[in-house]
Design a protein that fits this description.
alpha+beta; Cathepsin D, subunit A, domain 1; ten-stranded mixed sheet
């Protein structure tokens, strides 16, 4: 790997992608440097070949072997680590919810400062192995002088196991790339549908200014107030007078010479609106107007995130008072969630699930996407059954054969920026204001034939301290964000969710470690956030945030609404204001009114269709560059 040094902490407006760099990532003290060597900005293929959606790379457990292993892995071992050859590469799950990196080793559990290398893992996790896949697992990043916990390959301690996942897929891994390493970088997860497969990219600092990122469809979501990474420091849990009882990875070990480097605040907590009804803006060419609906072709079926019926929905962006009837759960539910990429789907804690959905006696989900006969389809969740099991990195399994976890499918998950004040609108109210602003953006684009901010006619009164355009805010929705054309409400598209008892050590520990700085956690967001999205966990920004863009904005599984902020030229196309607008309106604006800045807001399939039609007509291609 070619090398160059960069120790700057200043955010730059741009950065050459795939530039080979060496970065010295500072932690608490100068002597506690984590030295990161690799090609920042270059996508790395995540592990593929098995049924698990968890983001995994591979590594060799013998430290940094250098040139002896530069050519790839001799093999990749996907069974229990104690049964693996000593020179085999092992899977490494990338988990933003684990505060510290953990790798297999020999002997007793111990916290060390050492070196390890991570490698690409495309097709490397298949069983039986795919010929040549292991040889292509080249070392891409080296993490030197890194504090991590080394655990034996086999342990009888019930608080740790080398399997991660749920009942559908719980593969073995040989390590966890945790928050103490991730927090030194910006980490990008891309669900590149098609031949590329899932990818991860590391950045020293994520390149680009906010307006440029918004123009690429990225909704910036600062963390929950006060916008800081959360988690207990090692000194916070050394409670005994002699300092011997220190809680680290449940083994009571840590680096006493450098305790501040072993465990730092790493956890990302976001405000969320859970189970909000599907919502999209639809365009009616006949009267040149836009309305909120559950999706194209469904103009009469809409309910707002707070429960306002379509018949009662008013114009503008101000909130409407609404008081759902007793037992009415068909609306969004406010939640506080932790981003934990090493978990499958979505995890809710039982007391929070009961608060949101009542007794959890929800309509059963049918395999064909329907709900039980006679049941109303208007429900924020349906019940899959009670056969769940969760294996989270570093925690005892949740669920047993005798007491399995409840399995749900939740309609949607919307993430919104954290408040800048101690009080303010709820998460579902903020989502509703942003959807109303999207409707106003659509009205203006249809009337003036140019997508730009609707600041002059869509101000929100929900924040009395800093009134401004509702379109200046952001939001992102995954799950069944809206009902796609010629489709219907389909629980098969909803988010697989496990309900974990509130007294399970995982729930009690993460709640303890994030309180009182954050609202009490309601659950953990895992791979539900990574499906059909381009997600950046930006630890390096002065205000840490999660950035979400959609890889296919037309299929209904993702809706990203970046900040629609006006530019100096009041007539200029603002690409950020194109995202979320109806496809037919966007095509008209691009083809008939030269709004070429909106091309990136279309799906690749729609871009192909538009380009082909123009090529057949003998005209220049309006969108010659596909994607972002």
């Amino acid at each position: 790997m070619a090398r160059a040094a960069d120790t700057s902490r200043t955010r730059r407006p741009s950065l050459t992608l795939a530039a080979p760099l060496v970065v010295v990532a500072l932690s608490a003290c100068p002597q506690d440097e984590i030295i990161i060597v690799g090609e920042f900005g270059r996508p790395l293929a995540l592990g593929s070949g098995d049924a698990s959606p968890l983001p995994r790379l591979v590594y060799r457990p013998d430290g940094c072997p250098g040139e002896a292993a530069a050519g790839g892995c001799s093999s990749v071992c996907t069974i229990a680590p104690e049964s693996c050859p000593p020179d085999a590469c092992l899977p490494l799950v990338v988990d933003s919810g684990s505060p510290i990196t953990t790798l297999v080793g020999e002997g007793e559990p111990v916290a060390v400062r050492g070196c390890f290398e991570v490698r690409t893992a495309e097709d490397a996790l298949a069983d039986p192995p795919i010929e040549g896949a292991a040889g292509q697992a080249f070392a891409r990043f080296r993490f030197d002088s890194t504090p991590y916990v080394r655990l034996p390959r086999a342990t009888a301690d019930v608080s740790w196991g080398w399997q991660v996942g749920d009942a559908s897929a719980a593969p073995f891994v040989g390590g966890v790339l945790g928050g103490n390493v991730l927090r030194q970088m910006a980490v990008r997860f891309t669900d590149a549908r098609g031949s590329d497969g899932p990818q991860i990219t590391f950045y020293r600092e994520f390149p680009g200014v906010e307006s440029a990122l918004a123009d690429q469809g990225s909704a910036a979501l600062p963390l929950q107030f006060p916008g800081l990474l959360l988690g207990k420091l090692i000194d916070d849990v050394c409670q005994q007078p002699n300092g011997d009882d220190c809680d680290l990875a449940s083994f009571g070990v840590f680096d006493r010479n450098h305790p501040e480097s072993a465990l730092q605040s790493t956890r990302m907590v976001l405000d969320a609106c859970l189970g909000a009804p599907p919502a999209a803006v639809v365009y009616t060419p006949g009267n040149n107007s836009c309305e909120l609906a559950s999706g194209p072709g469904k103009p009469d079926s809409f309910r707002s995130p707070t429960g306002v019926e379509r018949a009662d929905l008013r114009a503008g962006c101000g909130l409407q008072a609404v008081a759902p009837a007793a037992g009415d759960i068909d609306h969004g539910h406010d939640a506080s969630v932790l981003i934990a990429t090493g978990l499958p789907g979505l995890v809710l804690f039982e007391d929070s699930a009961l608060r949101m959905f009542g007794s959890l006696e929800l309509p059963p989900c049918f395999g064909d996407g329907g709900l039980s006969s006679g049941a109303e389809r208007d429900t924020p969740a349906c019940r899959m059954g009670q056969a769940g099991l969760l294996r989270a990195p570093g925690w005892p399994p949740a669920g047993t054969a005798e007491r399995p976890l409840i399995e749900l499918r939740v309609r949607s998950l919307a993430l919104v920026p954290g408040l800048t004040q101690t009080t303010g609108p709820t998460a579902c109210q903020r989502l509703e204001v942003r959807l109303r602003a999207l409707r106003s953006q659509c009205h203006m684009a249809a009337r003036e034939k140019v997508p730009r901010s609707a600041a002059n006619n869509c101000r929100s009164a929900s924040d009395d301290l800093t009134p401004g355009s509702a379109g200046f805010t952001t939001a992102a929705v995954v799950g069944q964000a809206f009902v796609a054309s010629d489709s219907r409400v389909d629980p098969n598209l909803w988010i697989p969710t496990l309900v974990v008892p509130a007294d399970h050590p995982l729930a009690s520990a993460v709640r303890r470690d994030t309180s009182p700085e954050a609202l009490q956690l309601d659950g953990l967001v895992g791979t539900a956030l990574l499906r059909g999205t381009d997600v950046v966990l930006d630890y390096t920004d002065p205000t840490p945030s999660v950035r979400v863009a959609c890889t296919d904005p037309d299929d209904g599984s993702c809706l990203a609404m970046p900040a629609c902020v006006p530019r100096d030229d009041p007539r200029a196309v603002v690409p950020a204001c194109c995202y979320g607008l109806p496809e037919d309106l966007l095509v008209s604006l691009i083809r008939d009114h030269s709004a070429y800045g909106c091309c990136a807001a279309l799906s690749p399939a729609t871009v192909d269709e538009l380009n082909n039609a123009e090529a057949i007509a003998g005209r220049e291609l309006p969108c010659p560059v596909r994607g972002r």
